[in-house]
Amino acid sequence: MLGVHVPALTGWTRQHPWMNMVLTSSYATPLWQFAVAVPVLGIFLKDRRALWEYVANFHFCAIVTVAALALIPAECAFQHYGFTSTIDQARFIGHFNGFRGGSLTLIRFTDIEGLISMPSFHVAGALAVTWAFRRHPWLLAPCVLLNSLLVAATFMTGAHYFIDVLLTIPLFALSAAICSRWVNRCSFPGTH
Asked: For the segment 19-61, what is each residue's pLDDT rounded down to a tens digit?
């Protein structure tokens, strides 16, 4: 309905190996971004306000996405349309189909990546990291570049529907509004 046909975009990405490499590489960065953000904000930059906002946004979005998985475990675009994502989805397909079918009753923390279609935690996480560095232009610019590619990769590789991205943006905006208010009301050491 939005005029964005994910299978066609994935086909274009597949025909451009250099772009596929850039997109799939950026799509694989959230875990290290999450890990690096905490020490960079807290130790190197000593920006405790940004650190607290980042941690709060991360957890708010994580709770909402896990709740969405429990309530509406939707098929990803590549499953629904029956095409192959440019990102290897074999592990995801086994976990998702088992979860949706009821045969997977235990989700190990080490196996949870990729189980959620909407909202996209890749997008929410990218927004959380980028937002955390907004007051540090020399780090913000690379975050914007990397995470713009990551957001584009979610649908250009066939991993998500385009609507997953669109619906994640207001989720993060709500999270940022709530978490910023919370941090402003609390008195954390080093957040002045």
From this structure: 999 999 999 899 899 999 999 998 999 988 889 899 999 988 8
pLDDT tens digits for 142-159?
A: 999 999 999 999 898 988
Closest CA to 118 of 70, 59, 65: 65
Confidence (pLDDT) at 191 = 46
- CA quadruple 94, 99, 103, 109: dihedral sign: positive
Q: What was the pLDDT predicted at 134?
A: 94
With tokens 């005029």, the residue in question is: 3
Domains of the chain with CATH codes: 6-185 (1.20.144)
Q: Quick count: other Cβ atoms within 10 Å of Cβ 104?
A: 15
pLDDT at 104 > cutoff 60: yes
Give the integer Cα–Cα distance in Å for 157 and 139.
26
78 and 158 Cβ atoms separated by less than 8 Å: yes
